[in-house]
Structures are given as structure tokens and as C-alpha cells.
Specification:
The complex is a heterodimer of chains A (about 280) and B (about 150).
Chain A: E1 7-9, H1 14-26, E2 32-34, H2 38-45, E3 53-56, E4 66-69, E5 72-76, H3 81-87, H4 91-97, H5 103-106, H6 111-115, H7 126-130, E6 134-139, E7 142-147, H8 148-151, E8 152-153, E9 155-156, E10 163-170, H9 171-174, E11 178-183, E12 194-201, E13 204-213, E14 215-218, H10 220-226, H11 233-241, H12 256-275
Helix pairs in contact in A: 3-4, 10-11, 11-12
Chain B: E1 3-10, E2 13-20, H1 25-32, E3 51-54, E4 57-60, E5 73-75, H2 84-91, H3 101-114, H4 120-127, H5 137-150
Parallel strand pairs in B: 1-5
Antiparallel strand pairs in B: 1-2, 3-4, 3-5
Helix pairs in contact in B: 2-5
Classes of the chains: A alpha+beta (about 280), B alpha+beta (about 150).
Chain lengths: ~280, ~150
């Protein structure tokens, strides 16, 4: 139970949701878009999240889309991770999403909610970074389709009153060979030490990582080093590790040095798996 | 609106209830509808003691606002009667203190309905959502598998 009260709205159109946000914001309600809502419910309970007006976007049909249309896979932001896993239209996403929280919780956690989360792992974004997906958002200025690399910089850079509707991914990426592994310090559920997701396009490997830095990322510099196929695997990894973004996390899940040790092994496993293909 | 009158289809019966927007489904089930089978544990979506079944799927009722369940079909442990999984829990000694039992049974019940042919990987994946502090996991797994095998 949450220790504060809020108004709850469930609009059925994009325009209604955007207008509601504007109206509630003007009235000082600190409105919040709500999809699975697990973050508001868990963080609100301990005073780390607050709102006076919740706008639940699960009733908007565009946010519930799951279909292959021409040469793109469209996934709505309010689809639960379980729904996406059961349909298994994008196997890399299925594997990466299936490591988030636990099975029952994934019936509530949504794609958009995970990508836009305050908790910084946001692992569901990794496959979309690898597949150069497009992001469809809406806000006071209307709908916009934007390449994910322009909008996802550490987190989805949404302006006040904007929210995520869908992600569009070219079908040639959803069937490409992949690798996805979440290494935890212990147990089989919970936050990662490091999650590595990789996609092989032609002879090139693409890599995106969560849990290493306080944000998920895909690094072209790291990829360039890992793709120097004339060098031995260990040299490719050494060079790649010198080009990582900063800071490296150093927390209760694992020290910075331990994380780098784990990353080295994960990259080696990933290259071994994908080099064979 | 800070409060709402919602209708839940609970265990086959339509119940109207006045809720705050901020009330979780768990709180409403226990505090307003007298259905105390779903247990409050961590209240944070980690332990699974409050698991019920919403539209056929397992749901941690502490992670759902009651308003989100408006018009939905909810089954709680009180709605199960002589199901194979309940019988299997007894036959396999699949509980000790019993606090986690309703949550485990509701999760197992959903798995049996959704994936009657579940393999070991899927069984493990689903059961990882619940915690048993008496560590009766082996017996719980046996109970679930005894029902799945009969199917």
C-alpha cells in the first residue's frame, strides 16, 4: 500500500493521455505516466517516488501493439515482458527479458516501463540498441519516430509530457545470431553484476552491456576492437576493455575490478559462441 | 479521482468495492473483501506470498493497484477447491510453516493451466518467483511435477 494518495486516470487515446498530462501538470499534480507501475508501487512505498496523478497508458491501443508489419516488428510499450516472451517474435529480446526480475513479476513489468525505469539496469533496451531500432514517442508536439541512438543516451531522453508508444525493429535483425547472458554474483534471480547482449550481423559483432556502468550502453569503440578478427581473442578484449565508458560500478553487487574480470570472461564466451557461426 | 468503486470478479463472484487509487490489490483482498489467503510478505514483489491469479496468469497482488484489476477475473486460494495441486501439496508434504503455500499453489495452478507440458526449465523459471523460508523447495517441486506428469 502506498502512503500517499493520488488520482488515477486511464485514457484510451494518445491525445487524451497527452492532454491529461498537460492539464494535471499545470495544476501542480506532478503527473506520472504509468504502465506496469511496479516502480511507483515499490519505490513509492519507501518514499523514493511520488505523484499526485497517475496516467495509466495500458488502455491505449497503439501501446499494446505486437505485430510484424512489412519488414518491421512493432512492439508496444505496455506489453508485459511475459507477453513478449510467450510470443517469442524477437529471440534475443525473449532471452534478455527473461532474466529481468522473476517470472510472475514479468507478468506486470512492461517493455516501456523497463526501458524508462528509474532503476538503471533497463536491460530490455539492449536488443533494441543492437538492432538500431526506431522509437515512436508522443508528447505535446505530436508523434515522433526517432532512431533509438538519438534518444537513448544512458536513458530515454523524454521531455516533460512525452511517453514511449512503440519500438520498431527491422526483421532482418530479429532473426540474426545472438548471445545474451546475465551474470549475477549469486542466485538465479535479481540484479546483475553484468548483462551482455550481442548480435552478429554479417561478420561483425555488436555488443550492448548493462550493469557495468550506472547506465546501459552500446559502444562502437568496444565493437571496433572486438571485431579485429586478425588479432587473437585476448588482444581484441584487452583493447576493447581500454575503451569502456566511465564510471565502472563499484557497489554491493561487485567491485569495479571484479566486474571487469567478469566482463572479460563474458566477452570471451560471447566471441567464442559467435565466432563459430 | 482518489477513490473509485470497482467491480472485481473474484472466485466466480462479482464484488463491488470502494478503493483508494493507491490501494494495492493485496490490501483490498485482505482488508476489504475478507480474503486473507493471499499473504503479505515483503510487499515489494520479491517473495511471492501474495500471488493470486489474474485473467489466468499468476500475479503478485502487492504489485498491482486494485483499480488496475477493475473488471478482471481474479482467483485467490479461497477459489480453489480440491484441485489436483492442493492434493499434491498434501501428499508430498510440500509445506512446513505454510505461510508461502497459498502463493506457491496459485503460481503452480497457473503453470498447470498455461503450460500442462512444462519442462524442467520452465518449471524452475516459474517457481523462482516464490520464496519458501522453510526451504521446502524439493517437496514443492515434487508436488507440481506429480500433477504435470499425470496430465
Amino acid at each position: 500500500m502506498l502512503p500517499f494518495d493520488f488520482d488515477y486516470y486511464k485514457p484510451t487515446s494518445l491525445k487524451e493521455a497527452v492532454d491529461l498530462y498537460q492539464y494535471l501538470d499545470q495544476h501542480g499534480k506532478q503527473p506520472m505516466f504509468f504502465s506496469g507501475g511496479t516502480e511507483l508501487i515499490t519505490l513509492g512505498r519507501i518514499d523514493l517516488a511520488y505523484t499526485e496523478a497517475v496516467i495509466d497508458i495500458k488502455g491505449i491501443s497503439e501501446c499494446n501493439v505486437m505485430q510484424i508489419s512489412a519488414d518491421h516488428l512493432l512492439l508496444g510499450s505496455t506489453l508485459s515482458l511475459t507477453k513478449i516472451e510467450e510470443a517469442n517474435l524477437f529471440p534475443l529480446l525473449t532471452k534478455t527479458a527473461s532474466e529481468v526480475a522473476d517470472h510472475t513479476a514479468r507478468g506486470k513489468i512492461t517493455l516501456g516501463g523497463n526501458i524508462c525505469a528509474q532503476i538503471f539496469y533497463r536491460e530490455a533496451v539492449l536488443p533494441f540498441l543492437l538492432a538500431d531500432s526506431q522509437v515512436l514517442i508522443v508528447g505535446p508536439d505530436g508523434k515522433k519516430m526517432v532512431p533509438i541512438h538519438e534518444l537513448f543516451l544512458e536513458k530515454l531522453q523524454l521531455k516533460k509530457g512525452e511517453f514511449l508508444i512503440q519500438l520498431a525493429t527491422e526483421t532482418r535483425f530479429i532473426s540474426a545470431p545472438f548471445y545474451s547472458f546475465k551474470r549475477r554474483q549469486q542466485w538465479e534471480t535479481g540484479y546483475p553484476l553484468i548483462t551482455v547482449a550481442a548480435l552478429k550481423i554479417g561478420q561483425e559483432v555488436r555488443v550492448a552491456i548493462s550493469g557495468l556502468c550506472p547506465f546501459p550502453f552500446r559502444s562502437k569503440e568496444l565493437e571496433a576492437s572486438l571485431n579485429k578478427r586478425d588479432l587473437p581473442v585476448s588482444s581484441r578484449i584487452d583493447e576493447g576493455l581500454s575503451k569502456l565508458p566511465k564510471p565502472i560500478l563499484d557497489d554491493v553487487e561487485g567491485s569495479a575490478n571484479y566486474r571487469l574480470f567478469v566482463l572479460r570472461n563474458l566477452l570471451s564466451d560471447m566471441l567464442t559462441a559467435l565466432d563459430r557461426i | 479521482m482518489k477513490s473509485h468503486t470497482i467491480t472485481l470478479s473474484i472466485n466466480g463472484e462479482n464484488r463491488s468495492v470502494m478503493v483508494r487509487s493507491a490501494d494495492t490489490l493485496l490490501y483490498v483482498l485482505r482488508g476489504k473483501l475478507g480474503l486473507t489467503g493471499a499473504k503479505p510478505g515483503c510487499l515489494n514483489g520479491d517473495c511471492g506470498a501474495c500471488t493470486v491469479n489474474v485473467e489466468g496468469w499468476p500475479m503478485k497482488s502487492c504489485l498491482m493497484l486494485a483499480v488496475e484489476a477493475d473488471g478482471k477475473k481474479v482467483i485467490t486460494i479461497e477459489g480453489l477447491e480440491n484441485t489436483p495441486i492442493q492434493k499434491a501439496f498434501v501428499e508430498n508434504f510440500a509445506f512446513q510453516c505454510g505461510y508461502c503455500t497459498p502463493g506457491f499453489i496459485m503460481n503452480c495452478h497457473s503453470l498447470i493451466l498455461k503450460h500442462p507440458d512444462a519442462d524442467d526449465h520452465r518449471i524452475k523459471e516459474w517457481l523462482e518467483s516464490n520464496i519458501c523460508r522453510c526451504t521446502g523447495y524439493a517437496e514443492i517441486e515434487s508436488a507440481l511435477k506429480s500433477v504435470l506428469r499425470k496430465k
